[in-house]
Amino acid sequence: MLALALLALAEIPVLAHDVQRGDILSAADFVLEERAGPLPPLARPDQILGQEALRRLPAGTLVRANDVAEPRLVKRGEPVTLVIASGNLRITAAGRALGDGRSGDSVRVVASATTRTLDGTVIAVGTVTLATP
């Protein structure tokens, strides 16, 4: 007796090319590919697009939610703008990040003018807010 298993074909998004750790994913990084068989749980497009790859992902990879994270807005060793705000007063200064940070992360920074090490919170690309004294 011959047993036949019918597998449904589905078009799913896979990586069109290798993606390096730290790359930000966009729709241009994907192509639709026909695959058969039971598929692993896939991340939704809103969980992937605009996110940063946490590791190298080869072409043809099905991207999962744990393969990506919110992009780093501050990177270790890069210049940052330090911001202290109180009411209508806003003071900015130049600094350098001592660690990586995503939105809302705490990071240590060095103020360029004083070489003082401070703790702050990432609020935007290259911008760290410091607590008011």
From TrEMBL:
Pfam families: ChapFlgA. Residues 10-69 form the SAF domain. It is found in: Periplasm. It comes from the Bacteria. The keyword NAD does not apply. CDD domains: SAF_CpaB_FlgA_like (cd11614). Gene3D superfamilies: 2.30.30.760, Antifreeze-like/N-acetylneuraminic acid synthase C-terminal domain. Keywords: Bacterial flagellum biogenesis, Cell projection, Cilium, Flagellum, Periplasm, Signal. The keyword Signal applies. Involved in the assembly process of the P-ring formation. It may associate with FlgF on the rod constituting a structure essential for the P-ring assembly or may act as a modulator protein for the P-ring assembly. NCBIfam families: flgA_cterm. Belongs to the FlgA family. PANTHER family: FLAGELLA BASAL BODY P-RING FORMATION PROTEIN FLGA. This is Flagella basal body P-ring formation protein FlgA. The gene is flgA.
